[in-house]
Each structure stands twice: as C-alpha cells, then as structure tokens.
Amino acid sequence: MVNVTYPAVDIQNLSFQYPGNGEPSFTHLNLKIAKGDRFGLFGPNGAGKTTLMNLMTGLLKPSEGSIALAGVKVGRHKYRVNRLFGFIPQDFSFYQELSPAENLEFFGAWYGLSRNKIKQKTDELLNIMGLEDVRDKQVQQFSGGMKRRVNLAIGVIHNPGILFLDEPTVGVDVQTRHAIINYLIELNKSGTTLIYTSHQLSEAEDLCNQVALMDNGQVMAQGSLDDLLEEHKHHDLEELFLNLTGKHFRDDV
Ligand SMILES: Nc1ncnc2c1ncn2[C@@H]1O[C@H](COP(=O)(O)OP(=O)(O)OP(=O)(O)O)[C@@H](O)[C@H]1O
C-alpha cells in the first residue's frame, strides 16, 4: 500500500471576491503548507490574511479553485474537516456570560468529546493557561490577555492536527504573549501544524519555521526565514517586508 503524506494545506488556483467588492481578493492563488510547519502569514492591513484564513477554514467559499486540509477538501466533507482543525479567530468566540470551565465543557461537547475527556482537557488547559483560579468566574470580567488565553484553550480542546490562529497575540502583555508562544511551540512539537497571521514581524523569529509575506492577495515571498533573507539580500524581515510591500499606509476607506 502506498503511504501518501498530504500537505496540511493545499490551495490550488484559488480565486475569491467579496460580493459587491470591485477588486477580487485572490486570483489563481497557489499555496502549500507542509505538515508539522509553524507557518506565519504576514502582510500589511488589508493584504487578505483574514480572508485567506476564513477560506481555509470554510467560513468563506472560493469562487474558483480548491482548498484541501490534510487531503480532505474543505466545503465538501464538513464533518470530517471541522474535526481536523482548530481555529482561533481574531474576535473572541466564546460565551462571555459563562466561565472558562463552562465554555470548555460546551465546546468539548460540540466536538463530540466524552465527559471524561472534557474534564481532563479542561483541567489541563486551564492549568497551562494560568486560569485555574478563575475557572468558575464569568469570562466577561476578564482582562484582554485572559480572554485571549480562553480563546486559545477552546480552539485546542479537541487536539486538532492543524491549528489556525488569526493574530493570537494582539493586545496582550508580554507575559501572555510569552505564554501563548511557548504553548504553541510545545503543541507543534507534539505534532500540530500551526498556521498563524500577525503584524508582529518579530514573532516570525520566535515562532515560525516558514514564512509567507502577502500583499494585495498575492504571496510575494515564501520560505524559511533564513532562506528569504538570503535570497532577497536583506538583514531582517522588516526591511524585506517594507521593500516588498512599500511604505504607504493601507487604511481601508
Ligand atoms: N466582509 C467583507 N466585505 C467586503 N470586503 C471585505 C470584507 N472583509 C474584508 N474585505 C476586504 O478584503 C481585503 C482583505 O481584507 P482582510 O481583512 O482579509 O485583510 P488582512 O490582511 O487580514 O488585514 P488586517 O491586517 O487589517 O486584519 C480588504 O480590502 C478588505 O477591505
């Protein structure tokens, strides 16, 4: 029997346009992300990072082309695909009036985990995220950093093989940023592929083994950090980023 290893993400000939929006967000985009990668998607405001993540997780539907996660087509096998990945969106995606423990119980059940498994994962994740002392308090009372950690715990409760994170460290203090990055590195060591967006180019060095720089719905450069800097003859990612994407502001109007 042939043992085929599929990429974690395989995007082929992807085109997408928001209804009523003149410019297409993507035209014939191809992108492969290998299993086991810590893949960072970087780009200026409006580059298309969130849109691409929403397409990869099936929240948006491509107008052309296909996306497969671990060989399974997104949009065609919803039940199978939804259990393959976890998604930590930019906006908080939990119930503010529930506690962290209740939120984890709810989402664990949604993923079809047994009662015992939910209890075990809840204890483990609240411990890792430093939320044990507030496990029964309403999340709406929490600071932004604590809410980010609740969001992260929910996204990984079912041990996903692929984890999508849209700006997971936005608006957090140094301690929470470190806790999140260290946890993600450990998760990756245990086999989870990470696909992550950020504006914080410094995080590429801390977290990513592969980087893609996006602008205007296109991947301008992709590779390991060292290879990219070497290939484009730049000293750091910020310099390369400005060189590839320009210095003008990208305010949406
Ligand atoms: N719901 C929507 N309807 C119409 N256009 C949209 C919608 N969401 C995003 N866009 C447009 O699509 C383009 C890509 O936006 P997107 O949010 O994917 O970029 P981004 O790289 O994630 O930016 P940021 O870093 O600011 O979050 C932008 O021009 C944006 O205005």
UniProtKB/TrEMBL annotation:
It holds the Pfam family ABC_tran. SUPFAM superfamilies: P-loop containing nucleoside triphosphate hydrolases. Residues 9-241 form the ABC transporter domain. Keywords: ATP-binding, Nucleotide-binding. Coiled coil: none annotated. One of its GO terms (molecular function) is ATP hydrolysis activity. It comes from the Bacteria. PANTHER family: ABC TRANSPORTER G FAMILY MEMBER 20 ISOFORM X1, ATP-BINDING CASSETTE, SUB-FAMILY H, MEMBER 1. This is ABC transporter ATP-binding protein.
